[in-house]
Amino acid sequence: MKSLEPGPPNMNYCLLHQKLQMLNCCIERKKSREWHQLRSSVHSVLEESKTSAGSPAPLSESDDDEFYECNENSTSSGDSRSSSTSGKKHPEGRLRQLGDIKLLNCDEPLYIPVTQEPAPVTEDLLEEQAEVLVQLGTHAEGAALRARMQSACLMSDMEAFKAANPKSVLEDFVRWYSPRDLIEEEVTDEETGKKVTKYHLSQRMLLPGNMWLEAWESARPVPARRQKRLFDDTKEAEKVLHFLASAKTSEVITYLMPMLIHCALLQLAEEEECPRSLPLKLEETAMKAAKVMRSPEPKYEGVLRCLYQAEVIVAQIQSVSTKFGLLCNLEEMQSKATESMQEMTRSSSMEGVSSSWKSSLKDSEKASEQKEIRKFVLDLLDSYEVDVPGAGKGVVGKRIRHLFAEAQRASHLILDEKPLAAPSTPTESNDNHSTVSEFPAPSGKEFILRTSMCRPPGCTVTPQRMYCVITREEFRLAGAFSEDTTFL
User: Fold this and answer.
1) What is the per-residue pLDDT across 388-419, written as a single tens digit (0 to 9) for each?
2) Residue 464 — very low, low, confident or very high, per pLDDT cuts 50/70/90?
3) In terms of DSSP bridges, do strands 94-102 and 195-201 run parallel, antiparallel, or are they unpaired?
4) Could you please report the per-residue DSSP string of 334-349?
5) Angle value at C-alpha 328, between 322 and 330, nearest 5 degrees
6) Burial of 429 by CB count in 10 Å (0-12 exposed, 13-18 middle, 19+ buried)?
């Protein structure tokens, strides 16, 4: 699990992770709100002390840096005094000016308002909201209520925009909020004959019963700091704590299952050398997991079965590699070979050159042997039958013979390292080692005779085969014969 950030919940993570992110977000929102309230209260106290004394009170540098960084509070306090005297609307809650853009009905700059941040939601809250909106139905009252619920954030932004720009119209808000819905046209003025740029709303905005028009008419000029909060951090934090306290162990495991499956797939995919069946099995597991996780009631039995099969493949390759003595990595052996070659180039005496040359040759031979054995092991896990390169005299054949010899030692409780008798060596001595063969006694014998001959004579040559198996329990003889039937 990644570190929890104080931002909104990320839908790419599991529900439990989203709930923890929501809790962090609630804590950050509460701390930020309390800090702004403290700054505004201290600022109002300082303003009252200045007005009552008739002269500005002496402030320290810390006070000036701490409480006078926010232009919103100072602007709103000065505007409130001037509004009480003049009775006119004055701007509040301005963030910054939007470039050189002016308001359409007057020659005043357009200011971006300080707005509320949208309310963060988790996956389950999003589903609940969607169900509520669907249950409202398609009648007029339900549609109006649905539009009102969906336009809460829009209404808040409109009120903040009106407070920051008292002389603005809907076209100004659309110009800042949704520039594509404001169409710009150049027309010629009839009186002056000059080209003038005019703006009008798009057809979507001019439809009867448009939500934007109704919201703009009902919106009041209220800055964001005096609006009703879109996100109740206290209530949402209590919901998260209740969710965590009432969750059962099985539910927690269900919430963590997607993350655990993802971690398992990444862990299995990190295997450097693996048989061809492992990537195919991992791809199958990922497809099943994606299909299961999209269902409302996921069942992970099939996904866990695929993961178990993939782990069995990894365990098999590790077990066979250990039995064949692949304890040292191929890259490490190659690095040792290059190091010995470098030492050989640095050495000046002939003896040092010869010893370094011999050690480098030995390391390179070991690396090639390890590579050949690793290739054989990978082929063995992918196929039912694999040819042993070099038969019994090759590197792989010697390792297989050593495995059988070790198994015979273990079965006969032989602890010393004396060589065992070869399979064809006559056992004349009474030594225990000479009586124990490197290979176990055969359980049966098989004979296969193949030939190609013409049957009957003078016809086309066709394949013939005879098979014989001899065990302690049975004796079987089978043949497969063919003949030319074209001219017979």
Assistant:
1) 888 877 888 888 888 888 887 787 777 666 66
2) very high
3) unpaired
4) HHHHHHHHHHHHH--S
5) 115
6) exposed
Q: Which amino acid is at 198?
A: K
3-state secondary structure of 444: strand
Q: Contact, 288 vs 302, CB < 8 A?
A: yes
Average confidence (pLDDT) over 61-90:
41
Residue 89 tokens read as 């609307």
448 and 467 in contact (C-beta within 8 Å)? yes
Nearest CA-CA partner of 166 in 103, 118, 218, 122:
103
Residue 142: partners with Cβ closer than 8 Å, 6 or more residues away: 136
Among 457, 447, 371, 441, residue whose Cα is nearest residue 408: 441
**Is pTM beyond 0.85 here?**
no
How far is 198 from 195, CA to CA, in rounded Å? 10
Closest CA relative to residue 313, chosen from 285, 294, 292, 340: 285
What's the rounded Cα separation, in Å, for the pair 108 and 106? 6
Residue 80, both tokens: 């409130």
Residue type, 450: R
pLDDT digits (tens, 9 = 90+) for 174-189: 888 888 888 887 777 7
Find where tokens 């992770």 sit.
Answer: 17
Q: What is the reported pLDDT for 101?
A: 86
| 251 half-sphere exposure, CB direction, 13 A CA radius | 8
